[in-house]
Amino acid sequence: MTGEDLLGMSSIDAFASYLNVNKAVEEACLSNDLCAKSGYCYQFVNDCGYGKTDELDVAYMTGFYIGSRKGGIEAKWRPYSEVNNMNDLSRCIKIAKALELNELAVSCIDKNWVVPSALAKIGAKDHIETIVCRADLLHLALELGYIDVQKRGSCYSTKTALELMRHFGLDKTIE
């Protein structure tokens, strides 16, 4: 007896149905992909933790020296309405501040270049530049950054992920 007989659907349909329900799997795939793309652009790339359970999906440095810019990426495969959450954003910003990052890019699936309204509840001194951007556009910016690095004959990008988005015109607000 096959899985199709048991479930009344093909195994591909069953897996697709599972993915549609399990956002954690989608976010893990996105996180791994953005980490790999960051590895093409930056020398020091890692997921960085703070404490026992909290971590940012990607933390990176743009150069080799003290004073190089540092950034972070929190990969979310969710609508903006689910990303604009004070608890999650506070956790990410706490980690980013502990790592002394200059910026934080938080991805979502439906809006681009939005300063999260949940940040208005905490003072400007309490957070770093944090932009919510579409995951596909962030992915594209990192791809284009890698191509740019190769054209210049360099090893790594000197621009952070958000700077790459600005440089390639991917910083437009999309509602």
Question: What distinguishing features does this structure have?
Answer:
globular, disordered N terminus, single chain, 175 residues, five-stranded mixed β-sheet, alpha/beta
Total helical segments: 7
Q: How many strand elements?
A: 5
Q: What is the structural class?
A: alpha/beta
End-to-end separation: 48 Å
The run of helices and strands is HHHEEEHHEEHH
Classify the helix fraction into a percent range: 40-55%
Low-pLDDT regions: 1-7
Radius of gyration: 18 Å
What is the spatial order of strands in the main beta sheet? 1-2-3-4-5
Strand share of the residues? 15-25%
Q: Per the principal axes of the C-alpha atoms, what is the gross shape?
A: globular
Mean residue pLDDT: 83
Sheet having the most strands: 5 strands, mixed
Q: How would you portray this structure in words?
A:
There is one protein chain. The protein is an alpha/beta fold. The protein has seven helices and five strands, in the order H-H-H-E-E-E-H-H-E-E-H-H. It has a five-stranded mixed β-sheet, sandwiched between helices. The chain is globular, with a radius of gyration of 18 Å.
Task: Outline the fold blueprint.
Elements: H1 3-7, H2 11-21, H3 23-41, E1 44-50, E2 54-61, E3 70-74, H4 80-83, H5 86-98, E4 103-108, E5 129-134, H6 135-152, H7 161-167
Helix pairs in contact: 3-6, 6-7
